[in-house]
Amino acid sequence: MTAANDSDELEALFDSIAADIPATPPTPAKQDNSGDSDELEALFDSVATDYKPPVAAAAAPEVDAVAVASDAGWPAQESVFNRIGHMMRELHSTLHELGYDKLIEETVSALPDAKDRLAYVANLTEQAACRVLNATDVANPLVEGMENSAKALGQRWDKMFANQLSVDEFKQLAAETRAFLKEDMPRKTQETRAQLTEIMMAQDFQDLTGQVIKKIVVLAQNLESGLVNVLIEVMPETKRTPEVTDLMNGPVVNAEGRSDVVVNQQQVDDLLDSLGF
Amino acid sequence: MAADPKMRFLVVDDFSTMRRIVRNLLKELGFTNVDEAEDGAIALQKLQAGGFEFVVTDWNMPNMDGLTLLQTIRSTPNLKHLPVLMITAEAKKENIIAAAQAGASGYIVKPFTAGTLSEKLNKIFEKMGQA
Asked: For the complex shown, is ipTM > 0.95?
């Protein structure tokens, strides 16, 4: 692997990460900076573009990049970019020292593929959800129609047994009941069954997404095992930022061994009860 | 207390599928007067326009999240009486406590069932009847 090639790929990786940053939801704590994200993105891009991995010992370009941040006049952000700049620099030299170059190379080539795969999963699951909801939209009126027809006929049969129908009315009722049983009912059950089949078939995404997700999990595991330790090494204890989106973590994927999360509605209710809500 | 079937609901979630599911469940429970909003900011606009009697909201949404929406509703004089039911994947205890402290009327964790939604709605209607 040539050093130049390595730098290009690293830059592409960093750019792709930088480009994704503004997609993160704003933190509730910062309510007055809604206009900042574009500026932040621009700044971040400029830092990412200016940044040259220190293949040689020269550190001048990074200093320039940091200077861009301080010139822009955001003291809080400046320290963050400073930190990221230092991190990248230290990370890169550490990677060289530890021989992680190969891992990075593999990861860089795997990431765009992983993004495509995840987009594919999002697509398939959305399609499946739509198919199922459409099928229930079609099936519900069918079932409702059968229920209403059956109830109406039943009420008229009640009248018949109470001797409240004339002979003509009885003939009419018998004919209608026959038509309902022979035509209306089977047609509607068939149509409903078609929708049930549609719902069943819509689950076929599970197989496809399962395979794709397994591949991404493997990629993530490799990435994690290789990079986490290095990241921890290069990031001093005092500089670690607290998790900003503490209350927006999404679904708990694995609750095993955790006491800070609830696993079912009963536990939610118990917790609220215990607090007097 | 039997709830008014004409009660007007606002369902707030950034995923259209989830909005559709909640809307369908509400329809099954007899509530057909349902409008949707895809985040807290849009929800607040719709609420300010008036006419809503019940809010069902997700937590994690772009622009304005559900907790901020709840806090804003509770601090807005003409909205603060609105019942707000949170339906969210956030399952940390501190989330539930934060929601309760902010004045949530109920808290449901995803995935949830039609039965749970019905039970929580009835509980809230009961409380509203007592108030």
From this structure: no
